[in-house]
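We now fix the convention by which a protein and its fold are recorded. The integers have meaning only within a learned vocabulary of local backbone shapes. A record is reproduced here so that you can trace the correspondence yourselves:
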Amino acid sequence: MSTRSANHLNNLADLNSIARSGDLVLYITLLVSLAAALAIGDYFGDLPLALIGSGMVFVFGSAAFFAARGSVLARIVLTTCNVAAVALHIQLGRGTSEFHFGVFVLLGLLLVYRDWRMIVLAAGLFAVHHVAFDRLQALNLGFYCTTEANLLRTLMHAVYVVVQTSIEIYLAVRLHEAAVEGSELAALVRNIDRGGSLCLDAASLEVSAPIAIALKAAIGKMGVAMSEVKIAAESIESASAEIALGNIHLSERTEEQATSLQQTSMSMNELTGSVKNTAQTAEEATELAQSASTAAREGGEAVGRVVATMNAISLASDRIADISAVIDSIAFQTNILALNAAVEAARAGEHGRGFAVVATEVRTLAQRSAGAAKQIKGLLGDSADTVDVGLKMAEEAGGSMDNIVNQARQVSELIGVISSATGHQTAGITQVGAAVSQLDSVTQHNAALVEESAAATQSLKGQAIRLNEVVDRFTLAPT
């Protein structure tokens, strides 16, 4: 069975429920009216008519109620039976005016059917009854409509009935519309409520009441909105899943980067310490180089003084050689003089013997002086050669010391440059280390933020899934 057919049957069931309730009210009213008829018949001394009339009405009314309850036939029969019961009251009461109130009461009770046709039927039956019974009463045939046959009064009663009937027809139409509206609203509610889910697809429902039409339109708009929410929720779930996955990868890479930066920071700290040590060593080397340069310069000055001293010694040796030459010349001349003296002593004979001895001694001394002078001359020559060699070596040593001094000065300057560069490198590396430390701190913070973002994304994904679960409880129109 299609949804449209099911909804139509549900609407019919709602209206049938109203009809069955109306049948029950009219049947109970009929039973009360029949009991009243028996009482009226007994009071006015016409109980047999009351029993016969009530029995016939009871049979037809009960048959319709139990056999066709809720149908149009049952409504027609029960309406006719209740009209007959009121007519029986009027007949048994000899047309007493008070019993005519049953007409208006019955017309009012017929609103329970919310069917204007039953009101028109009852009004028509009452009109036929009043006119017919009034005319039969006028012929003295034992029928009663009023206490006395009077067509004008009967027509006045008919006017009141017409007025009430017109009002009740309007009310019945409005009540029927309300019943249809209530049935359609109930159908919409039943269509929405599907037990564990809510259906927002009301396209298959046929409604005619304005409120039902408005509610159906609102349900349709809600369905469209929920469809959009479902699409958005699915998109959010998909996007949050992708973001969560990306955040997981980003978190892993950030943690790796943070670890690498931490290691880099440690390495930079070690490098900074090493460079600082190198700078300190360079400063110490600079001081040592300056000390070496000073010592070399002082050594060069000392070698210069040695060279000067060697030159002075060489000059003194030259002077000693000259003096030795003079001594040698004096010894040679003394030897000649001693030889001449010996010759002269020999010539003097005995008188010159003592002088010859002196001359011999003088000659001996002259020879010894000449030998000593030769030895001194030889020693001075050797000493002069040695001094010359020493002077050359001192000059070479002086040149070497000058080179050493120059090189030591250059080394000191280079070490100073290295020390200055090392100082700049230390400052730079310190700044780099600080930057790396700051970058490490920022990366750690970013890693924490990424983890928080990943947690938030997971929460968003969970909320999107929850939203989809909520939306899935609604049955939406196919897109």
The two ends are 23 Å apart (CA to CA). Residues 161 and 167 are 10 Å apart (CA to CA). The chain has a mean pLDDT of 76. DSSP finds eight helices and two strands in the chain.
